[in-house]
Structure formats: C-alpha cells, structure tokens
Amino acid sequence: MWALWTWLFSFFFILAILIIIGFQLVCLIDLEYDYINPYDSASRINRVILPEFITQGVLCFILLITGHWLMCFLSLPYLYYNATSRVRGVAMVWPGGPCPWYLQGEHLVDVTEIYNQLNREKKKRFVKIIYMICLFIFSLFWLLFNLEEEYD
C-alpha cells in the first residue's frame, strides 16, 4: 500500500515539475516572439525556479526514504544539475564559508542578459522537459504496476 502512495506522490511531483518547466519554456518563447518584455519574462521565470528546485529535492528525498533506489538514482542527476549549474565560480564569503549559489542569486535569470542567453535557456529547458518526461513515464509505469499488484 505504501508503494502505491509513494508512486502516486512521485507521479504528481513529476507532473508539477513538468508544469513548472513548461511555464518557463512558454515565458521564453513569448519573449522570443516579443509578446512580453524581458523584465516580465525574467520575473515570471525567477518566481518559479526555487519551487522547481524544492519540488525536485522533496521528490528525491521521498524516493530515498521509501527505498525506491532506482528512481531516486535516476532523479539525482537532475537535482545535481539544478544545484550546481548556476555556480559561476565566484564565491562570496559569509560566516559559514563560501556563500551558496542561491544566496548570490546565481539561480535566477538575469533581465539584462536574457536576450543573449535565450537560445541556451530554451535548449536547457527542452532537455530538462525531455528528461522529466522519461521520469514521468517510469513513474507512471510503476504506479500502474503497483496499482495492479494491489488489486490482484
């Protein structure tokens, strides 16, 4: 029964991440076709980046504590990429050592550079969405498998 609930939570967490990435992609495409200005696009994207990171972290934690090692192992590269991709090598010093990237604002989209980075940001989100669709398919398979096992 717990496995079924775990896969159900996993299904909805991955669906939420897919929606967030899709929203970011729509914002970038709207910016490309001049439907919105760079400030609005960057503020909309920046508003949902941290919830994306938190959702992915919670998903990995749930999969880890419930013993679904394969799915956790498949989810870790995405979490690692999110945690390390925004660090540019310049670390501020704060009382505990180097300042984490999220305190420097490195995870946010820069309003002044968004046009220069538009193609790269779109490609990153397309790769993220393809990766998450694969995880979504795996999660859906295990959800249906456990559902069938539960009611057999």
Automatic annotation (TrEMBL):
Keywords (A to Z) from UniProt: Membrane, Transmembrane, Transmembrane helix
Transmembrane segments: 7-33, 53-80, 126-145
Intracellular or extracellular location(s): Membrane
Entry superkingdom: Eukaryota
GO biological process: vesicle-mediated transport
Signal peptide stretch: none
Membrane disposition: Multi-pass membrane protein
Record-linked InterPro entries: Cornichon
Primary site of residence: membrane
GO CC list: membrane
PANTHER family noted in UniProt: CORNICHON-RELATED (PTHR12290)
Family in the record: Belongs to the cornichon family.
Protein name: Protein cornichon homolog 4-like
Species the sequence originates in: Ziziphus jujuba var. spinosa
Organism ancestry: Eukaryota, Viridiplantae, Streptophyta, Embryophyta, Tracheophyta
